[in-house]
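hiii so um. not sure if this is the right channel but i have a protein structure encoded as C-alpha cells and i wanna go backwards to a sequence. like what aa goes where. can anyone help
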C-alpha cells in the first residue's frame, strides 16, 4: 500500500517545485496533476499498478477497476503447510514479563498475485516496485 501511496507524497513534493521540468522531460509530456503522474508511474512500472489494486481493494474490499494492463489481477493467500521455526517445529517459545514460558503455534501465509496466466509471489512484485522507486529517487532527488 505504501508503494502506491508514494505517488501521492512524491507528487505533492514535485508539484510547484523546480523538479517539474525534469519530470516533464522524463515523461515526454507535461505532467500537470496527480492522476497524470500516477499514470506515468504505472506505465513505467507495472508492479506499481498491482500495488494500486492492492491498496484500493484493501480499503474498499473489492477491485474498483481493471489495472492498466490487460489481465485481471487477483490476490490469494496460500497457507504454508510447514510451520515456521528455526528447527522446523511448530512450537515457538517466548518468555512473558513474569518469566513464564508462553507456547504458541505459528502458521504462515504468503500473498501471491496472478495475472490469469501465472502466479508471482507478492514479495517479488514489491521488490520490483521498491527498486523502481529507488531508481526514480536517484534520477530525481527529493530533498
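sure thing!! here u go:
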Amino acid at each position: 500500500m505504501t508503494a502506491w501511496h508514494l505517488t501521492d507524497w512524491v507528487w505533492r513534493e514535485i508539484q510547484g517545485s523546480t523538479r517539474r521540468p525534469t519530470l516533464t522531460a522524463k515523461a515526454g509530456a507535461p505532467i500537470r496533476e496527480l492522476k497524470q503522474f500516477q499514470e506515468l508511474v504505472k506505465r513505467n512500472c507495472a508492479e506499481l499498478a498491482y500495488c494500486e489494486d492492492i491498496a484500493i481493494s484493501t480499503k474498499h474490499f473489492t477491485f474498483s477497476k481493471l489495472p492498466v494492463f490487460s489481465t485481471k489481477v487477483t490476490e490469494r493467500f496460500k497457507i504454508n503447510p510447514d510451520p515456521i521455526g528455526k528447527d522446523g517445529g511448530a512450537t515457538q517459545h517466548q518468555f512473558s514479563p513474569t518469566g513464564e514460558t508462553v507456547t504458541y503455534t505459528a502458521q504462515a501465509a504468503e500473498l501471491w498475485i496472478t495475472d490469469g496466466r501465472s502466479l508471482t509471489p507478492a514479495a517479488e512484485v514489491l521488490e520490483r516496485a521498491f527498486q523502481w522507486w529507488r531508481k526514480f529517487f536517484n534520477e530525481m532527488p527529493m530533498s
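oh and The chain has five helices and five strands.
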